[in-house]
Design brief:
Layout: E1 2-8, E2 12-19, E3 24-28, E4 45-48, E5 56-59, H1 69-76, E6 79-84, H2 90-93, H3 96-102, E7 107-110, E8 120-121, E9 127-130, E10 133-139, E11 148-154, E12 162-166, H4 182-193, E13 201-204, H5 209-219, H6 224-234
Parallel strand pairs: 3-6, 6-7, 7-8, 12-13
Antiparallel strand pairs: 1-2, 2-3, 4-5, 9-10, 10-11, 11-12
Helix pairs in contact: 5-6
Protein name: Hydroxyacylglutathione hydrolase-like protein isoform X5
Family: Belongs to the metallo-beta-lactamase superfamily. Glyoxalase II family.
Cofactor: Zn(2+)
Length: about 240
């Protein structure tokens, strides 16, 4: 399994997950189907390659070059068959309609009927399969009532599993609780996402790391873990 991380809009992340044997690809949170401008600074497209443990290959992209999801699909030589959408907000789902028009037969999946171009609604605990890649659908309400996170793994693979958490969970933070109760959000974070294997890699929906950690440091100025993480994030 290879994961291409594609920065889009102001601070969003879109993902392309590639099954390296069948060359099938799945996109996660298609905000922009054709134009994806890399963000300035340290953001980059990262390929998570199999059989290399937690290694991430970094490819820094020139800020002025418009990268396209479909160009990346073509360059990788894969067939994009499915979109997994975490929630209905425009910055995670707006590109679905145009992408479905460009790729007839594209399957768009999610847990909320408000998702653009949705072809089938998923249920909590449902499992999907893309070649060797297993996908477990985890309903994680909080940011929205129909927010779904996706837990991916491959059998007999040295790579750690991955979770695509959208706006349910980010680095040192989580999305605003907009449509549910704090108790529901707590359950999503602690009981659902918090019980995944500790080696799970988290692919979140936004780059809010610095802001989250700076806020955490103001709340807990003596927290050494926050200080260390903030230093790491600034590198």
């Amino acid at each position: 399994m290879k994961v291409k991380v594609i920065p889009v809009l102001e601070d969003n992340y879109m993902y392309l997950v590639i099954e390296e044997h069948t060359r099938e690809a799945v996109a996660v949170d298609v905000a922009v189907p054709k134009r994806a401008h890399p963000l300035p600074g340290a953001l980059c497209t990262r390929a998570w390659r199999p059989n290399t443990g937690s290694h991430l290959d970094h490819l820094h992209l020139p800020n002025s070059h418009p990268f396209q999801l479909l160009e990346i699909v073509g360059r990788e030589g894969v067939s994009l068959t499915t979109v997994l959408t975490t929630h209905h907000h425009w910055d995670h789902a707006r590109g679905n309609t145009e992408l479905a028009r460009l790729l007839p037969g594209l399957v768009v999946l999610g847990a909320d009927e408000r998702i653009c171009a949705l072809t089938r609604r998923l249920a909590h605990g449902e499992e999907l399969r893309f070649g060797a890649i297993h996908v477990r659908c985890l309903l994680t309400p909080g940011h929205t009532s129909g927010h779904m996170s996706y837990f991916l793994w491959e059998d007999e693979c040295l790579d750690p599993p991955a979770v695509f958490s959208g706006d349910a969970l980010s680095v040192a933070g989580c999305g605003s609780c907009l449509e549910t109760t704090a108790q529901q959000m707590y359950h999503s974070l602690v009981e659902t996402l918090g019980t995944l294997p500790p080696e799970t890699k988290v692919f979140c929906g936004h780059e809010h790391t610095l802001g989250n950690l700076e806020f955490a440091q103001k709340v807990e100025p003596c927290n050494n873990h926050v200080k260390a993480k903030l230093s790491w994030a600034k590198v």
